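User: Second chain of the day. Same drill as before.
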Amino acid sequence: MALQRRYRRRHVRFLLERRTIRDRGNPKDVDDTVLFARYRFTRLTILFIVDIVTEKLDSALTKRSMALTPLHKVLVALRFFATGAHFRLIGESLGVSVATVSRCVFEVARALVRQANKFIQFPREESTSSVKQGFYRISGKVFSIYLIVPNVFFKKEK
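Assistant: Same format as last time:
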């Protein structure tokens, strides 16, 4: 019995799973068409989003040795936004865990919402009436086309 305990103590460290370092690759090496197909954005737009969001992400605050860069966090979130797939599928395709995908999507979405006021502007009170008139003018044309087109294709023959 004592021999078994000594054997386990000495060899238990070899039985533990070794830490693996995953190669996440360099997303900058990917072709532009593949990048657009995966993330629905061009390379310049992705780098622009990374520049906007970098200071708001918490990657500098972590003391983990395997922290994701802001670029990888944005790419994980954009993959989710583009496909709407399950976190497990996105994590397997990008080499991260499900929890990491969840954190990345939350952090990037929160950072983008904080920056939304710079890019989304609602009309002011003085321009509201002109915007309404423009909308009614466009919607009226679309509605009239919708009424005319079915009559052309579905004429009853006598």
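The chain has eight helices and no strands.

User: Great, on to the next one.
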